[in-house]
Design brief:
single chain, Rossmann fold, 3-stranded antiparallel sheet, globular, binds S-adenosylmethionine
């Protein structure tokens, strides 16, 4: 990376864990950093502003990034980052079984914000499907009318078949493969 300044963009920073890691990484590398945070959830934006609102290295924008966005539609504070970022780092969920379309959004980041030789983390995204038997979790969900992210390592969870790759994508381009059908 030429020069001392690194521009980074984080889509979906949530409560700010990746922002902190970027600031710490830049400090360790002796680099000045400017970070653009694009976060859709207004409550998370409030937390980000409390934590980083006074840090000149961090810009927080309350925006739901969409693959159709053009540079001209972005908030004014994004302008210095358009076509000028060395790094994209994101941790979203998706693209199947969740509504946070990581490869589609990161390919949008690539188009709008990244320099040709930028580093994209993650580079690729794979989703696996596996049927599970989890009676305790099922009962809890039914009782509380809640959703639950089921960790395969939970003691209550038995995997009923090997996990099968269902969706795979390159984040920079969103070139992707859906498995037409999944059988167990
Ligand atoms: C799974 S959470 C990740 C939180 C955070 N990255 C972390 O490391 O803890 C995903 C975050 O992405 C945000 N998000 C989802 N879709 C988005 C979009 N299109 N534009 C901006 N933020 C988005 C959600 O509001 C949520 O805060």
């Amino acid at each position: 990376m030429p020069g001392r300044q690194c521009n980074a963009v984080i889509v979906g920073p949530g409560l700010g864990r990746l922002v902190r890691y970027c600031l710490e990484g830049a400090a360790l590398a002796g680099k000045a950093v400017k970070i653009l945070c694009i976060e859709a959830n207004a409550a998370a934006v409030d937390v980000l502003n409390i934590e980083y609102g006074r840090d000149p290295a961090v810009t927080v924008e309350n925006l739901a990034l969409h693959p159709t966005h053009t540079a001209g539609e972005l908030p004014a504070a994004c302008a210095p980052f358009v076509g000028a970022c060395h790094l994209s780092v994101s941790e979203l969920l998706g693209c199947w079984g969740d509504n946070e379309f990581l490869p589609e959004l990161i390919s949008t980041v690539q188009r709008l914000f990244l320099l040709d030789d930028a580093v994209v983390i993650p580079e690729s995204w794979d989703n696996y499907l596996v049927p599970v038997h989890a009676p305790g979790i099922h009962a809890g969900v039914a009782e509380h009318e809640a959703t639950y992210i089921c960790a395969p390592s939970s003691p209550d969870v038995t995997l009923l078949a090997p996990a099968t790759l269902a969706y795979s994508a390159r984040c920079a381009t969103a070139d992707r493969t859906f498995l037409g059908s999944v059988a167990f």
